[in-house]
Design a protein that fits this description.
The structure holds two protein chains of two kinds. By secondary structure, chain A is mainly α. In chain A, helix 4 packs across helix 6. Chain A has nine helices and no strands. Chain B folds into six domains: 153 residues, Rossmann fold; 189 residues, FAD/NAD(P)-binding domain (3-Layer(bba) Sandwich); 74 residues, Alpha-Beta Plaits; 160 residues, FAD/NAD(P)-binding domain; 56 residues, 2-Layer Sandwich (Alpha-Beta Plaits), CATH 3.30.70; 148 residues, Rossmann fold (3-Layer(aba) Sandwich), CATH 3.40.50. Chain B contains 22 helices and 38 strands. In chain B, the strands form 13 sheets. In chain B, strands 10-7-6-18-29 form a five-stranded parallel beta sheet. In chain B, strands 20-27-21-22-23 form a five-stranded parallel beta sheet. In chain B, strands 2-1-3-4 form a four-stranded parallel beta sheet, sandwiched between helices. In chain B, helix 19 packs across helix 22. Classes of the chains: A mainly alpha, B alpha/beta. The complex binds flavin-adenine dinucleotide and iron/sulfur cluster (4 copies).
Chain lengths: 146, 796
């Protein structure tokens, strides 16, 4: 049975008021590349869930969005679902329900300034391919602040 | 009419020269006023005010004995001004104006003080304060009355003829109604034939009548009616004047065929070697360069498409002795004078190519609904066969709803109201033609709200039409150029890719592309979507805000045929009212121009929503058309050179009210300007509802918030007001005068910024709020807040 969680609904709507414009037409869903290639990903249902204050919308499925912007382009109500989803991700991170892999990646970037680190694993792979070893790079942290 | 003479035949003119002799009449209104306010004390107070020669109080002033006393006193005391302190002027001003004029006094020499709605009813428990306030309110009315001038209403004669612009079903209906009432009608139509959109439809929902069969006889009647002059290929060139007396010039494009001589035999068509696409058939069929628009066209006359004609003159040869073909024809201007105008320029269908994702104009087998209407029509380009562009019979169809409606990406957030039913109708027609056809309708919501609509929707489901809730995101083209519709099925939450033989885009309705031009020429406003604006959305739905101009059909908003015809008959009967009376009355609350001082700066012209005041390009002076003026006074407040005066709300009169309001303890008062239609009425409602608020507020009534000039506000501050509060109708669209509040907002917000410089006061002392006539509680709450603020200021 659908129950509306008014408390969470209020919180979400304060942060993402454009949610209220959605009239559940589904245009975003058939525009969505994540839905097409990964499956069972519906911006519309995420929005509906958010409107009902369902905390389930913050689950890790949220991160399937391919950030392609197709839904923003076509949504007839100016909801900008892509941006809504991004804002939901922000809420999710704050509530600490971000998938581990995203968390790790962002930690690395914050820590080192690199998206990919050269570590033993990389060098092992290189060795197997007959490529020469490369030295792990220094952290770029000082560059970040400079 | 630019300078109307003020008639002096009625009494009261002498009052201008004579010393004012004011009579004040205080009403108890039973216990309504008398139960709170000490009327005797107020009467004593009034009798001591300068120029007051008589003051009395009465149990019920509006009743016969009360009115008789006023009339008697006017005679006995030779009164030339009357002040009545009673209920709201919105209640009884007409009653008392009538009363004093029966005693021989000009009705505009009467002023009311609202001591009931604005005093006794809202300060029930503060009897002393209420009595003090009543003295102020009476003092303000007396002060204003000293400067009152006798005014005359203007009488404008009305010509008994109408111009109808647009010959769709609405224009034709309005023309026929008025012509049947005996009025002369000029019906102009931009296209070569009349009938508009309806002539292109195959069947009409919800009844599934043959469209041209029901419309045809009406069109023929229009063509034949002795009171109707029908001009096709014709548009409005220029409109001057005002209700009752419009001067119109229309322009007729040549057809190169002399209408009176053409017999409609069509022999020219047989010999013409040039083919052109048919606009009526949406380019799905071709015509010769010389043609009639379509076989049932009214008038059935031929014309030459000179853009494509190669000037071989074979047609002229074939026409022979009939000599109907005339290549020398020129554009023709026709002038006439009329009393009223009906605007019936209708709708266009949304341009489907603007929604590229559906591939209209790119994919062969994506069509829009008017095109498809021609395809199913037995008289259409395919003879009613459901053929694709490649000549194959289509069997699988998909309708996409809301194309160009309910869609902010193309600026049309509204529902067009007809396309749901239209698609259902077309789907049923498909089933009639091809019983085993597969028909899908992809929709967001099905809107079937009118008589017979829901029943048709039910029948469509019974016929096996497949309704899928979901707005397709796009269409792609598959093998054999088959459109594939891609959508979410919102009810199952699954994606669908539906291959069809033909996809039909249910385009919405947009205003005619001529609406902008027509609106500018007639000085009538449009809404943000470009539809004509009505004078009041509920109570005056077919009047434009400009007097004498009425709206018929779908140019005001998308309508189906029934609603278009209903509004057309309504517009015709509204237009008949002034024509039947033969005259209109215009209130004396008009403008005076001190023409010497006018610099021709054009501020007034920009302010006036009705085009009533304009700068003459040659003389560089303002010119005023009293019959167009609605008396808002916005131009007066905008004029930087003090050239303009609003009769009955002159600066002199309002400043006298300010003086009186602030004559004692000015620091303890909030001075409020309230517009007659919204905020003053909101304050009245606070009274009627007995919403209590603190007494230190003094309200001055103006017709429009646009009248409140910088000069008046600064004067109030100079006289010691601590807070000046300007109120009006809600922004942007509630203003009784279209846009006075918008100008008020600009002006007051600018003045707020400049207040420290101009009055040495912080900006917050000048307030601006919008209060509707229904917001009595909001009015009361604002007053409470303002009085708290006032007390805080005074404590400092
Ligand atoms: C696809 C579609 C299908 C529809 N199907 C149905 C249906 O089945 N049943 C139903 O009830 N309704 C239907 N409608 C609605 C119906 O078409 C309208 O209600 C009706 O046509 C409105 O009539 P009108 O006179 O207001 O406007 P129009 O029919 O648009 O007529 C306006 C006329 O004014 C002329 N004009 C415009 N500007 C000027 C100018 N400046 N000077 C001179 N002339 C001018 C135009 O050329 C036109 O002839 C449908 C609408 C659409 C778009
Ligand atoms: S496209 Fe826009 S309006 Fe439609 S369901 Fe998605 S977010 Fe809601
Ligand atoms: S003159 Fe023009 S209209 Fe006439 S027959 Fe030739 S091409 Fe056709
Ligand atoms: S009538 Fe139906 S198809 Fe047309 S705009 Fe409204 S909801 Fe959409
Ligand atoms: S702005 Fe108002 S008062 Fe001035 S001319 Fe126009 S309608 Fe009349």
């Amino acid at each position: 049975m659908t129950r509306i969680n008014f408390e969470f609904r209020k919180k979400v709507l304060e942060e993402i008021p454009e949610l209220k414009k959605c009239f559940q037409c589904g245009t975003c869903v058939s525009s969505c590349y994540a839905e097409k290639y990964i499956g069972s990903y519906s911006p519309r249902k995420k929005i509906l869930g958010a409107l009902y204050g369902d905390k389930e919308v913050l689950s890790k499925e949220l991160w399937k969005c391919a950030t392609c912007n197709a839904c923003d382009e076509r949504c007839p109500q100016g909801v900008n679902p892509y941006e809504v989803l991004t804002k939901l991700k922000n809420i999710a991170v704050r509530e600490n329900i971000c998938p581990e892999s995203f968390r790790e990646k962002s930690d690395i970037i914050i820590e080192t300034g690199y998206a990919f680190l050269i570590d033993e694993k990389v060098n092992n792979n290189r060795k197997a391919l007959g490529l020469k070893e490369i030295k792990p790079k220094e952290s770029l942290r000082f560059v970040k602040n400079g | 009419m630019t300078k109307s003479k003020k008639s002096t035949k009625k009494t009261g003119i002498k009052a201008e020269k004579e010393e004012p002799r004011i009579g004040v009449f205080i009403c108890h209104c039973g216990k309504n006023i008398g139960g709170v306010i000490d009327c005797e004390e107020v009467t004593n107070y009034a009798s001591k005010l300068p120029n007051v020669v008589y003051a009395s109080h009465n149990f019920y002033t509006c009743a016969d004995p009360g009115q008789n006393e006023i009339k008697k006193s006017i005679k006995e005391h030779n009164l030339n001004r009357v002040v009545i302190a009673a209920c709201s002027p919105k209640m009884h001003e007409p009653t008392f104006r009538n009363c004093v004029s029966e005693a021989g006094l000009n009705p505009y020499l009467m002023e009311m003080a609202n001591i009931r709605e604005h005093d006794s009813w809202v300060h029930i428990r503060e009897k002393e304060d209420a009595t003090e306030k009543a003295k102020d309110l009476v003092g303000m009315a007396v002060a204003k009355s000293r400067y009152l001038k006798p005014l005359e209403d203007f009488v404008v004669p009305v010509k008994k003829a109408t111009l109808v612009i647009g010959g769709g079903v609405a224009g034709c209906q309005a023309a026929l109604d008025l012509a049947d009432m005996g009025y002369k009608v000029y019906l102009i139509e931009r296209e070569p034939s009349i009938g508009g959109r309806m002539a292109q439809l195959d069947k009409t929902f919800p009844t599934m009548d043959c469209s041209i069969c029901i419309l045809g006889p009406k069109l023929v009647e229009v063509g034949r009616h002795k009171n109707i002059t029908l001009m096709t290929n014709t548009t409005v060139e220029k409109v001057d004047g005002y209700i009752g007396n419009f001067k119109v010039i229309v322009k007729t494009k040549p057809k190169y065929v002399i209408e009176e001589k053409c017999t409609g035999c069509g022999e020219c068509v047989d010999v013409c070697p040039v083919y052109v696409p048919s606009k009526f058939e949406r380019n799905l069929k071709s015509l010769k360069a010389i043609h009639a628009p379509f076989p049932q066209a009214v008038p059935l006359r031929y014309e030459i498409d000179t853009d494509n004609c190669i000037k071989c003159y074979k047609c002229a040869e074939a026409c022979g002795d009939r000599r109907a073909i005339d290549f020398t024809q020129k554009e023709k201007l026709t002038k006439f004078e009329i009393g009223t105008i009906i605007v019936a320029t209708g709708c266009n269908s949304f341009d489907a190519a603007k929604k590229q994702e559906y591939g209209y104009g790119i994919y062969d087998n994506v069509v829009e609904s008017i095109e498809f209407e021609r395809i199913v029509c037995a008289g259409g380009p395919t003879g009613g066969e459901l053929l694709r562009r490649d000549g194959k019979h289509a069997k699988r169809f998909a309708f996409i709803q809301c194309v160009g409606s309910r869609d902010v990406t193309c600026g049309n957030e509204y529902c067009s109201g007809v396309c749901c039913l239209n698609s259902i109708k077309l789907a049923m027609l498909i089933k009639e033609h091809v019983p085993d056809a597969i028909v899908y309708i992809f929709y967001i919501d099905i809107r079937a709200f009118s008589k017979g609509f829901e029943e048709l929707y039910t029948r469509a489901r019974e016929e096996g039409i497949i309704f899928i809730k979901g707005r397709p995101s796009h269409i792609k083209e598959g093998r054999d150029k088959n459109p594939i519709v891609i959508t979410e099925n919102v009810l199952t939450g699954e994606l669908m890719e539906v291959e069809t033989d033909m996809a039909i885009l249910a385009v919405g309705m947009t205003p005619s592309e001529t609406a902008k031009d027509v609106a500018e020429k007639l000085h009538i406003p449009r809404n943000t979507n470009g539809f004509y604006l009505e004078a009041h959305p509920k109570l005056r739905p077919v009047d434009s805000p400009a007097d004498g101009i009425y709206l018929a059909g779908s140019g005001e908003f998308p309508k189906d045929i029934k609603d278009s015809v209903t509004s057309a008959s309504a517009a015709a009967s509204r237009a008949a009212i002034p024509m039947n009376k033969g005259k209109v009355n215009i209130e004396g609350i008009t403008i005076r121009i001190d023409i010497e001082k006018c610099t021709g700066c054009g501020s007034c012209e920009r302010a006036c929503p009705y085009g009533a005041i304009r700068v003459n390009k040659n003389t560089k002076k303002a010119e005023y058309t009293v019959a167009k003026c609605h008396g808002c006074g916005t131009c007066v407040a905008e004029c930087p050179f003090g050239v303009l005066t609003q009769n009955h709300f002159t600066d002199e009169q309002i400043m006298a009210q300010i003086d009186a309001a602030l004559s004692s303890n000015p620091k303890e008062k909030v001075l409020c300007f309230a517009c007659n239609w919204c905020s003053y009425a909101g304050a009245d409602l606070a009274g009627v509802s007995r919403f209590q608020y603190p007494p230190p507020i003094r309200i001055i009534r103006v017709m429009c918030s646009g009248r409140v000039s910088e000069k008046l506000v600064l004067y109030a501050f100079k006289k010691g007001a601590q807070i000046v509060w300007v109120t009006g109708c809600h922004i942007p669209s509630d203003c009784h005068y279209i846009s006075g509040n918008v100008l008020a907002k600009k002006r007051i917000e600018r003045l707020q910024k400049e207040l420290p410089k101009k009055a040495n006061l912080p900006s917050e002392r000048l307030k601006l709020n919008w209060i509707s006539a229904a917001e009595g509680n909001i009015f009361a709450n604002y007053v409470k807040e303002l009085v708290n603020e006032l007390n805080a200021i005074n404590k400092k």
